[in-house]
Structure formats: structure tokens, C-alpha cells
Amino acid sequence: MSARAQTLTLRLSLLATVCALLLHAALAGVRSQGAARQSDPASAARVAQTVEQARGATLTDDAFTDALSLGYQLVGERRYAEAAELFGALAARRPRDDAALYGAALATFNLGRAAEAETLARRAVAALLPAGADARAGGLFARAEKMRAADALVLLAVVLAVRGNNAEALKTVERAAHLAPEHFD
Question: Residue ranges of the alpha helices (H) in 34-140?
Fold first, then answer.
């Protein structure tokens, strides 16, 4: 194996490890936000009701936030099809909501639909990083926004790597590390 191939393999291995750690941290944060209310596995009826509510005529900000939490709970329970359906309904309702797009990309990717996940991950990145924003990242974003943007970039990088686009995957993870270097310690 050439030195370049070894370097690429090492970087992709590091990328996979970083993604696993980020996902674990994200899921732990979502679980702690609503632990008392969501300690039991989500019932199928509750999921169906929430999807219908997300598709309905009115959806309050609180209901949207609760639906996002349920979606991430479903991802944590490895119920990716239900999570993808819920996040899809939320993203249809709010097409520029980064949390809904990220959740949709994550659930869709875990269903093995990498091409669809790539589109969703790119939309999440676009929602978090308006054109040229990462070039001015020094003072433009709050720390939490930088972290969310870095997470979306890392998810996109993983999807790209799985799809065989290793060069763009490496550029994308480097972009994430540049945006939020403290996130990669």
C-alpha cells in the first residue's frame, strides 16, 4: 500500500472514530434534555401521532422541538425508518431547519440510503453555513453554532466517504476542523 493510501486510510479511520464520538455525544445530550419525559421507548402510536402533527396545518415551536427530541430518541433506539419519516416531515415543514435536516440525513444514512443522505446533509450544512460563512468563522458564529456546523460537516464527510468520494470527504472534515478546532481535541 502506498504512503498516500495509508494516509488516506488513517484519516478515514480517524474520521469514522470522530463521527462515532460526535453521534454518541449528540444522542447523550438529546437524552438528557428530556430524560424524565422520554425514558421509555417511544410507542408506535406516539410516533405516528407526532408525524401527523408535523404534517398538520399548525405546529407550534414547542411541538416542533418535542418532535425533534422524539426523532433523536428514535435514532438512539435504532428505529431509523420512523426517525427518517418524522425528520422528513419536520424538514418539509421547515426546510432550512438545521436540526431537522441533520436528523433526516442521519436517519436516512443509517437506512443505507447514502445518496439521499448526502442531499440532506448538504442542505443541513447550507442551513448552518451561509455562502462564505466558514471563511469568516472567527466572529460570525457562537460556539454552539460552530459545533452544530462542524457536526453537519462531519456527517457529510462520512456520507461522502461511504459513497467513495474520499477527496471531498477529507476536504469536508478539514473544513469542520478549521471551523471548530476545539471540537476535535
Answer: 44-55, 61-76, 80-93, 98-110, 114-128, 137-140
The model's pLDDT over 98-142, given as tens digits with 9 standing for 90+, comes to 999 999 999 999 999 999 999 999 999 999 997 555 544 555 557
Tell me how crowded residue 116 is: count the other CB atoms within 10 A of its CB. Answer: 17
CA-wise closest residue to 185 among 9, 21, 6 = 21
Closest CA to 27 of 93, 83, 95: 83
Let me know: does 127 contact 98? Beta carbons within 8 Å.
Answer: yes
All 3 cell numbers of residue 25?
455525544
* 3 state SS of 141: coil
pLDDT tens per residue across span 132-178: 555 445 555 578 888 999 999 999 999 999 999 999 999 999 999 99
C-alpha 143/C-alpha 151 separation (Å) is 12
CATH superfamily label, 3-184? Tetratricopeptide repeat domain (1.25.40.10)
Question: Which region, left, alpha or beta, applies to residue 132 given φ > 0 means left and ψ of -120 to 50 means alpha?
Answer: left
Alpha-carbon Rg of the chain, whole angstroms?
A: 17
**Interatomic CA distance for residues 141 and 132, integer angstroms:** 12
Name the grid cell of 108: 436516512
Domain extents for the chain? 3-184
For 9, 93, 128, the CA distances from 101, given in Å and listed in that order, are: 29, 11, 10
